[in-house]
Amino acid sequence: MITQEQVDFYHENGYLLVKGVFNSEEVEAMRIATDAIIDRAAKSKFDRSDTWQGDYLPPEQLKKLVLKGFHDVHYHDAVFTRALCHPNIAAVLSRLIGPNVQVHHSKMLVKPPEKGAAFPMHQDYPYFPHANHSMIAASIHLDDSDMENGCLCVIPGTHKNGPMPHVGAHYLNHKEYPISSGTPCPASAGDVLFFNYLTIHGSDVNRSARPRRNVLVQYRDPEDLPTEEVHVNWGQGLMVCGHNPIFKEYKGAH
After folding, report:
1. Mean pLDDT in each 10-residue stretch from start to end of the chain (254 residues)?
2. Is residue 248 situated within a structural domain?
3. Which of 2, 130, 139, 196 sits most deeply, having the most CB atoms within 10 A of its CB?
4. Contact residues for 1 (Cβ-Cβ < 8 A; gap 6+)
5. Measuring CA to CA, which residue among 222, 246, 225, 218 is closest to residue 129?
6. Do 232 and 149 contact (CB within 8 A), yes or no?
7. Any domain includes 243
8. pTM, 2 dp
9. Is 193 exposed, middle or buried (0-12, 13-18, 19+ CB in 10 A)?
10. CATH number at residue 156
11. Segments of the chain assigned E as strands
Protein backbone atom coordinates (compact mmCIF):
# COMPACT_ATOMS: atom_id res chain seq x y z
CA MET A 1 0.00 0.00 0.00
CA ILE A 2 2.93 2.38 0.67
CA THR A 3 6.54 2.58 -0.45
CA GLN A 4 9.69 2.82 1.69
CA GLU A 5 9.94 6.45 0.53
CA GLN A 6 6.51 7.14 2.06
CA VAL A 7 7.51 5.39 5.30
CA ASP A 8 10.61 7.60 5.46
CA PHE A 9 8.46 10.68 4.77
CA TYR A 10 6.20 9.78 7.72
CA HIS A 11 9.11 9.31 10.13
CA GLU A 12 10.67 12.61 9.03
CA ASN A 13 7.50 14.72 8.93
CA GLY A 14 5.12 13.00 11.35
CA TYR A 15 2.30 12.61 8.83
CA LEU A 16 1.44 10.86 5.56
CA LEU A 17 -1.53 11.20 3.21
CA VAL A 18 -2.36 7.89 1.51
CA LYS A 19 -4.64 8.15 -1.52
CA GLY A 20 -7.51 5.78 -2.32
CA VAL A 21 -7.46 3.63 0.82
CA PHE A 22 -11.24 3.18 0.56
CA ASN A 23 -13.24 2.81 -2.65
CA SER A 24 -16.37 4.81 -3.48
CA GLU A 25 -18.79 2.09 -2.29
CA GLU A 26 -17.03 1.83 1.08
CA VAL A 27 -17.04 5.62 1.46
CA GLU A 28 -20.74 5.85 0.65
CA ALA A 29 -21.56 3.14 3.23
CA MET A 30 -19.65 5.12 5.87
CA ARG A 31 -21.40 8.37 4.89
CA ILE A 32 -24.82 6.72 5.29
CA ALA A 33 -23.78 5.26 8.66
CA THR A 34 -22.39 8.62 9.86
CA ASP A 35 -25.55 10.51 8.98
CA ALA A 36 -27.66 7.80 10.64
CA ILE A 37 -25.63 8.03 13.88
CA ILE A 38 -26.16 11.81 13.96
CA ASP A 39 -29.88 11.23 13.41
CA ARG A 40 -30.12 8.62 16.19
CA ALA A 41 -28.11 10.83 18.55
CA ALA A 42 -30.41 13.78 17.87
CA LYS A 43 -33.34 11.68 19.09
CA SER A 44 -31.50 10.62 22.26
CA LYS A 45 -30.48 12.38 25.46
CA PHE A 46 -26.80 12.09 24.48
CA ASP A 47 -26.76 14.57 21.59
CA ARG A 48 -24.32 17.46 21.89
CA SER A 49 -21.93 19.70 19.98
CA ASP A 50 -18.23 19.13 20.60
CA THR A 51 -17.15 22.61 19.52
CA TRP A 52 -13.94 23.50 21.36
CA GLN A 53 -14.40 26.36 23.79
CA GLY A 54 -11.68 28.95 24.40
CA ASP A 55 -10.30 32.30 23.35
CA TYR A 56 -9.13 31.23 19.90
CA LEU A 57 -12.29 32.72 18.34
CA PRO A 58 -14.58 35.59 19.36
CA PRO A 59 -17.39 34.31 21.65
CA GLU A 60 -20.21 35.45 19.31
CA GLN A 61 -18.64 33.48 16.44
CA LEU A 62 -18.00 30.43 18.66
CA LYS A 63 -21.70 30.24 19.62
CA LYS A 64 -22.75 29.75 15.99
CA LEU A 65 -20.40 26.85 15.27
CA VAL A 66 -21.21 23.16 15.46
CA LEU A 67 -19.07 20.03 15.56
CA LYS A 68 -20.43 16.50 15.89
CA GLY A 69 -17.73 14.44 17.56
CA PHE A 70 -19.16 11.14 18.76
CA HIS A 71 -16.66 8.59 20.04
CA ASP A 72 -16.30 4.85 19.36
CA VAL A 73 -18.28 4.78 16.13
CA HIS A 74 -17.50 1.07 15.71
CA TYR A 75 -19.87 0.46 18.64
CA HIS A 76 -22.64 2.11 16.59
CA ASP A 77 -22.29 0.58 13.12
CA ALA A 78 -20.44 -2.47 11.78
CA VAL A 79 -19.33 -0.52 8.72
CA PHE A 80 -16.76 1.20 10.94
CA THR A 81 -15.58 -2.08 12.49
CA ARG A 82 -14.77 -3.22 8.97
CA ALA A 83 -13.13 0.13 8.17
CA LEU A 84 -10.79 0.30 11.15
CA CYS A 85 -9.31 -3.13 10.41
CA HIS A 86 -9.50 -2.79 6.60
CA PRO A 87 -6.63 -4.63 4.84
CA ASN A 88 -5.39 -1.36 3.31
CA ILE A 89 -5.32 0.36 6.73
CA ALA A 90 -3.54 -2.64 8.24
CA ALA A 91 -0.99 -2.63 5.42
CA VAL A 92 -0.06 1.00 6.12
CA LEU A 93 -0.03 0.72 9.93
CA SER A 94 2.18 -2.37 9.91
CA ARG A 95 4.80 -0.26 8.09
CA LEU A 96 4.43 2.84 10.29
CA ILE A 97 3.95 1.30 13.77
CA GLY A 98 5.28 -2.24 13.40
CA PRO A 99 3.95 -5.79 13.11
CA ASN A 100 1.66 -5.49 16.14
CA VAL A 101 -1.05 -2.80 16.04
CA GLN A 102 -4.15 -2.30 18.18
CA VAL A 103 -7.03 0.17 18.24
CA HIS A 104 -7.14 2.78 20.98
CA HIS A 105 -10.44 4.46 20.01
CA SER A 106 -12.44 5.84 17.10
CA LYS A 107 -14.58 8.92 16.63
CA MET A 108 -16.45 10.79 13.93
CA LEU A 109 -15.83 14.49 13.28
CA VAL A 110 -18.52 16.17 11.23
CA LYS A 111 -18.35 19.85 10.29
CA PRO A 112 -21.74 20.92 8.93
CA PRO A 113 -21.87 23.29 5.94
CA GLU A 114 -21.22 27.00 6.65
CA LYS A 115 -20.97 26.59 10.44
CA GLY A 116 -18.57 23.70 11.02
CA ALA A 117 -16.33 24.50 13.97
CA ALA A 118 -12.56 24.89 13.87
CA PHE A 119 -9.99 22.87 15.80
CA PRO A 120 -7.21 25.12 17.14
CA MET A 121 -3.70 23.74 16.68
CA HIS A 122 -2.82 21.01 19.18
CA GLN A 123 -1.16 17.69 19.83
CA ASP A 124 -3.35 14.69 20.68
CA TYR A 125 -0.83 13.56 23.32
CA PRO A 126 -2.42 15.37 26.32
CA TYR A 127 -5.66 13.39 25.91
CA PHE A 128 -4.10 9.93 26.12
CA PRO A 129 -0.35 10.06 26.88
CA HIS A 130 1.71 6.93 26.20
CA ALA A 131 5.29 6.00 27.08
CA ASN A 132 6.77 5.42 23.61
CA HIS A 133 4.65 7.75 21.46
CA SER A 134 3.68 5.10 18.90
CA MET A 135 0.10 6.46 18.71
CA ILE A 136 -1.03 7.26 15.16
CA ALA A 137 -4.31 8.81 14.05
CA ALA A 138 -5.85 7.63 10.79
CA SER A 139 -8.22 10.34 9.55
CA ILE A 140 -10.58 8.74 7.03
CA HIS A 141 -12.06 11.28 4.61
CA LEU A 142 -15.70 10.72 3.69
CA ASP A 143 -15.86 13.97 1.69
CA ASP A 144 -13.43 15.86 -0.50
CA SER A 145 -11.63 18.20 1.86
CA ASP A 146 -9.88 21.54 1.24
CA MET A 147 -9.28 24.81 3.09
CA GLU A 148 -12.76 26.05 2.16
CA ASN A 149 -14.48 23.28 4.15
CA GLY A 150 -11.90 23.01 6.91
CA CYS A 151 -9.34 20.38 5.90
CA LEU A 152 -6.67 19.27 8.35
CA CYS A 153 -3.45 21.26 8.58
CA VAL A 154 -0.24 19.92 10.12
CA ILE A 155 3.12 21.38 11.11
CA PRO A 156 5.64 18.93 9.65
CA GLY A 157 8.33 17.58 11.95
CA THR A 158 6.74 18.73 15.19
CA HIS A 159 6.40 15.12 16.39
CA LYS A 160 10.12 15.40 17.14
CA ASN A 161 9.44 18.16 19.69
CA GLY A 162 7.99 15.71 22.21
CA PRO A 163 5.03 16.75 24.40
CA MET A 164 4.47 20.51 24.44
CA PRO A 165 2.67 22.66 27.04
CA HIS A 166 -0.97 23.22 26.08
CA VAL A 167 -3.44 25.82 27.32
CA GLY A 168 -7.20 25.69 27.91
CA ALA A 169 -8.79 22.42 26.83
CA HIS A 170 -5.56 20.98 25.45
CA TYR A 171 -4.80 23.35 22.62
CA LEU A 172 -1.68 25.40 21.87
CA ASN A 173 -1.48 29.17 22.21
CA HIS A 174 -3.33 30.29 19.07
CA LYS A 175 -1.25 33.48 18.81
CA GLU A 176 1.94 31.43 18.66
CA TYR A 177 0.43 28.59 16.59
CA PRO A 178 -2.39 29.96 14.37
CA ILE A 179 -4.03 27.52 11.97
CA SER A 180 -2.31 29.45 9.18
CA SER A 181 1.05 28.15 10.51
CA GLY A 182 0.08 24.64 9.38
CA THR A 183 0.57 22.93 6.01
CA PRO A 184 -2.88 22.22 4.50
CA CYS A 185 -3.58 18.56 3.71
CA PRO A 186 -6.38 18.63 1.13
CA ALA A 187 -7.71 15.15 0.41
CA SER A 188 -10.32 13.30 -1.62
CA ALA A 189 -13.05 11.05 -0.25
CA GLY A 190 -11.48 7.66 0.45
CA ASP A 191 -8.03 9.09 1.28
CA VAL A 192 -6.57 8.64 4.77
CA LEU A 193 -4.25 11.08 6.54
CA PHE A 194 -2.01 9.30 9.06
CA PHE A 195 -0.26 11.41 11.69
CA ASN A 196 1.55 10.88 14.98
CA TYR A 197 -0.23 12.08 18.14
CA LEU A 198 2.69 14.48 18.78
CA THR A 199 2.35 16.14 15.35
CA ILE A 200 0.78 19.57 15.76
CA HIS A 201 -2.44 19.75 13.75
CA GLY A 202 -5.73 21.63 13.53
CA SER A 203 -8.35 22.77 11.05
CA ASP A 204 -10.26 25.91 10.19
CA VAL A 205 -13.99 26.62 10.11
CA ASN A 206 -16.09 25.03 7.35
CA ARG A 207 -17.12 28.10 5.35
CA SER A 208 -18.37 26.12 2.34
CA ALA A 209 -21.81 24.79 1.40
CA ARG A 210 -20.38 21.24 1.69
CA PRO A 211 -20.10 19.00 4.77
CA ARG A 212 -16.71 17.79 6.00
CA ARG A 213 -17.17 14.31 7.41
CA ASN A 214 -14.18 12.42 8.80
CA VAL A 215 -13.81 9.28 10.89
CA LEU A 216 -10.65 9.23 12.96
CA VAL A 217 -9.16 6.08 14.49
CA GLN A 218 -6.24 6.12 16.92
CA TYR A 219 -3.86 3.14 16.81
CA ARG A 220 -0.85 2.12 18.94
CA ASP A 221 1.74 -0.59 19.49
CA PRO A 222 0.27 -2.86 22.22
CA GLU A 223 3.60 -2.70 24.09
CA ASP A 224 3.38 1.12 24.24
CA LEU A 225 1.62 1.52 27.57
CA PRO A 226 -0.41 4.54 28.73
CA THR A 227 1.28 6.74 31.33
CA GLU A 228 -2.11 7.83 32.75
CA GLU A 229 -5.37 5.92 33.11
CA VAL A 230 -7.40 8.27 30.93
CA HIS A 231 -9.58 7.78 27.86
CA VAL A 232 -10.26 4.14 28.77
CA ASN A 233 -13.21 2.34 27.20
CA TRP A 234 -14.43 -1.22 27.38
CA GLY A 235 -13.54 -2.24 23.82
CA GLN A 236 -10.04 -0.80 23.78
CA GLY A 237 -7.23 -2.96 22.43
CA LEU A 238 -8.79 -4.66 19.40
CA MET A 239 -5.88 -6.13 17.43
CA VAL A 240 -5.61 -4.98 13.81
CA CYS A 241 -2.19 -6.46 12.96
CA GLY A 242 -0.12 -9.19 14.54
CA HIS A 243 -0.55 -10.17 18.18
CA ASN A 244 -0.41 -8.67 21.66
CA PRO A 245 2.87 -9.75 23.32
CA ILE A 246 1.48 -8.75 26.75
CA PHE A 247 -0.94 -11.38 28.02
CA LYS A 248 -3.52 -10.15 30.53
CA GLU A 249 -7.17 -10.59 31.38
CA TYR A 250 -9.35 -7.93 29.78
CA LYS A 251 -12.21 -6.54 31.84
CA GLY A 252 -14.61 -3.63 31.56
CA ALA A 253 -13.35 -0.05 31.71
CA HIS A 254 -13.16 1.55 35.12
Report:
1. 97 98 98 90 66 50 55 94 98 98 94 78 95 98 96 98 85 90 98 98 93 96 95 89 89 58
2. no
3. 196
4. 18, 21, 88, 91, 92, 95
5. 225
6. no
7. no
8. 0.91
9. buried
10. 2.60.120.620
11. 15-18, 101-111, 119-122, 136-141, 152-154, 183-184, 192-196, 201-203, 212-220, 239-241
